[in-house]
Specification:
Blueprint: H1 3-12, H2 17-24, H3 34-40, H4 45-51
Helix pairs in contact: 1-3
Length: about 55
């Protein structure tokens, strides 16, 4: 398995619960992609929310 893929999947598991909920109910802003979230998202939930304007 590709290490980069595994790394991105692990990063997705660190997302704030409200961001995960937005992904699941498809209410996440259109300009935000899962790849973006898996690539450079900060670990701290407050920083994630600020980045996504939530």
């Amino acid at each position: 398995m590709d290490r980069a893929y595994v790394s991105r999947m692990v990063k997705l598991t660190t997302l704030a619960p409200d961001i995960l909920a937005a992904i699941l109910d498809e209410s996440l802003q259109d300009h935000v992609t899962l790849f973006d979230l898996a690539s450079g998202t900060p670990l701290l939930w407050d920083e994630q929310r600020a980045l996504l304007c939530l």
